[in-house]
Specification:
Number of helices: 20
Number of strands: 20
Strand content: 5-15%
Radius of gyration: 33 Å
Bound molecules: zinc ion
Oligomer: single chain
CATH superfamily of the largest domain: Ribonuclease H-like superfamily/Ribonuclease H
Distance between the termini: 68 Å
Largest sheet: 9 strands, mixed
């Protein structure tokens, strides 16, 4: 609105009394800002050829109609408005940014522009909707998507009957007791209390999810993007968003969404640190996700299921991708570590005090991974030197690429993790008596899980994920197939599973005497045309007879499969970007984050499949209880 004294406005209205009766202040305000925006279009209309001054211009008919429709005014009133105020079009306008004032001056006066209120009545069954009392208030920070960082007042109320404290998102019964639980109300609130002093807008978390899923942004990157581009003020005093707040928001928001979807109540311990509070809830969701937990697990569409002849044929691909987390140093041990810097799980923790050189059973020195045998110590020193050199190289590469430089390790021992894993392998044989440094073997760095395995429908929907601790063993792939297509849903078992090592898998299945494996005889295990040259030194007769494309003419169209057998490769390419983000994550967060990324990508993917006209749908579980044909 033009910044004019109010008496000028009154004088104008006195000349056009009909306007005062027909137009509200909001409509007038909108009219004035719209005509300023539309002034170039009004001037360039042929009806105003050669005229420039707003008072000489006529409103073109389309503009009149647009204003009448958008402001819900009769066209005659719009024309009258133009007669009364048209000369104000293009006047410099001023506006007051309330958020800006509240954010800067408000804090100075102890005033917050927004309040986060809890419910007003108790929801406990036995309390008969009792009104809540004992209002308490404190100041916190609200991070928003469009309005920047704002001060906010957070209110809590109390029920004397059931001794519950009510907050905006949850209530806590007997809050001072050690085992008190936060019970969330259900649904995902528009503003989420991530910690006592940090409240995050839901739509901001949705933006972070999108940054993570589509560009592999870490919480560190998301917080930098926010602090650089989305905070509206740049005052140094204003609170900055921290990566830990981004992570806590991400996990809490996903848990709330998951609980809402599954119609369960999210409960987390009240008296815990933010780092541990969600652990049990994350673990329960991770367990739910194993095998069949993805929302689109029962998905089908014409990209992954085809009617050929009188048969309904479906296909999946499975492949490995190099993403992993730190795990116990004992091969194939799946017991979680007590903390991220541990070398061994609690069950094998004694090994951390034993020299890491293969076969040596002496105690390791304090701050060392090896005993004080000079040869063993020299072996470790050599690795540390190499690790330091690798670190310097990595830091330089990051600097040259304009990326965030890695933080130097806090202790010299951590440089051992920099040595490429293939050089730090498990001892293959018994101890080497030789003093020759080169022949000494031993795992000095922490161990990482071997790979993630995905099962992907040929249309690109990812059905399930598993962590393989050891190498991509054929038995692990087989177990993963059993878990993803469980025996109680025989109809879920695809007609074909593409896998690079299918000939080995099939050999294993044919030799197996386990009754569970016999049901996989209904599945075809094809390999692609290039498989033989990659996997066999010579052409393998078993492979040619059982797995090569000629064995499956029903799903060949000329030289190509009717299914997209490289769907897993494409999914893996996307999935691989998460390695630097999840590498150091505790196992619960690692699994949860990756499953969540898959869910979000599936959601996006299925919308594309719908647009492509492939009719995506979920097969009812009852139909999957029998084998499809
Ligand atoms: Zn109550
Ligand atoms: Zn599909
Ligand atoms: Zn272990
Ligand atoms: Zn030793
Ligand atoms: Zn083969």
């Amino acid at each position: 609105m033009p910044d004019v004294p109010l008496d000028q406005l009154v004088a104008r209205l006195a000349n056009f009394p009909q306007l005062g009766q027909s137009v509200s202040l909001t409509q007038l305000q909108a009219f004035l800002s719209l005509i300023s925006r539309l002034l170039p279009a009004i001037r360039s209309d042929p009806v105003n050829a050669g005229l420039t001054l707003p008072s000489h211009l006529t409103l073109p008919v389309p503009v009149v109609d647009f204003l009448a429709t958008s402001l819900q005014l009769p066209t005659s009133i719009v024309i009258l408005c133009w007669a009364g105020f048209g000369d104000w079009a293009g006047e410099p306008t001023t506006s007051i940014n309330e958020d800006e004032l509240l954010g800067s001056l408000g804090t100075h006066f102890g005033i917050a522009g927004d309040t986060l209120e809890p419910p007003s009545h108790c929801t406990t069954d036995t309390c008969n909707n009792a009104p809540l009392t004992k209002r308490q208030e404190y100041q916190a920070t609200l991070f928003t998507l469009r309005r920047g960082v704002l001060p906010i007042t957070v209110v809590s109320l109390y029920c004397h009957h059931c001794q519950s404290t009510y907050h905006h998102d949850y209530k806590v019964r007997h809050a001072s007791q050690a085992h008190a639980q936060r019970e969330y109300y259900g649904g995902v609130p528009e503003r989420i209390m991530v910690s006592m002093h940090h409240v995050i807008e839901r739509e901001l978390v949705v933006l972070w999810e999108a940054q993570m899923v589509f560009s592999g942004a870490s919480a560190e990157a998301a917080s930098r993007i926010y602090n650089t581009a989305l905070r509206t003020r740049t005052a140094e005093t204003e609170e900055k968003l921290l990566p830990t707040t981004v992570w806590d928001s991400f996990f809490l928001h996903a848990l709330l969404r998951d609980a809402t979807k599954r119609e369960i109540t999210l409960c987390v311990p009240h008296n815990a640190t933010n780092a541990d509070r969600m652990n049990t809830a994350l673990e329960m969701r991770n367990m739910w996700m194993v095998g069949t937990g993805q929302d689109l697990w029962a998905h089908a569409c014409t990209g992954c299921q085809k009617i050929i002849g009188n048969k309904r044929l479906s296909a999946c691909v499975t492949d490995r991708v190099t993403v992993g987390h730190v795990c116990c140093g004992v091969a194939d041990c799946q017991i979680p570590l007590a903390n991220q810097s541990a070398w061994f799980c609690p069950a094998h923790s004694k090994l951390q005090f034993i020299c890491a050189v293969a076969g040596c059973e002496h105690r390791s020195g304090i701050g060392w991974r090896t005993c004080d045998n000079p040869t063993h110590r020299a072996f470790e020193e050599q690795r540390r030197t190499k690790g330091k050199a690798m670190f310097v190289l990595r830091a330089r590469q990051a600097r040259n690429a304009g990326q965030a430089e890695p933080r130097p390790p806090t202790s010299d021992m951590d440089y051992l993790d920099e040595v490429p894993e293939e050089e730090d392998q498990d001892p293959p044989t018994a101890p080497t008596p030789s003093n020759d440094l080169v022949k000494i073997r031993g795992r000095l760095s922490r161990r990482w899980t071997h790979n993630e395995q995905l099962i992907v429908r040929c249309c690109g929907i990812i059905l399930s994920r598993a962590t393989f601790f050891g190498s991509e063993a054929i038995t692990s792939v087989k177990d993963f197939i059993h878990v993803t297509f469980p025996v109680q849903y025989p109809g879920s078992l695809p007609s074909y599973i593409f896998f690079d090592n299918n000939c080995l898998l099939l050999r294993h299945l044919l030799a197996s005497v386990h009754p569970r494996d016999s049901r996989l005889s209904a599945v075809g295990f094809p390999v692609d045309v290039f498989h033989a040259s990659r996997k066999h030194k010579d052409s393998d007769e078993f492979c040619t007879m059982n797995c090569s494309p000629v064995t499956f003419p029903e799903i060949m169209d000329g030289d190509a499969w009717v299914f997209n057998s490289s769907a897993a490769e494409q999914a893996n390419k996307w999935f691989r970007q998460f390695q630097p983000i999840v590498k150091e994550m505790p196992i619960l967060r690692y699994n949860f984050f990756l499953d969540e990324m898959i869910s979000l990508r599936n959601e996006w993917r299925v919308n594309r499949i719908r647009v492509e006209g492939k009719g995506p749908h979920l097969i009812p579980l009852a139909d999957l209880e029998t084998r499809l044909s």
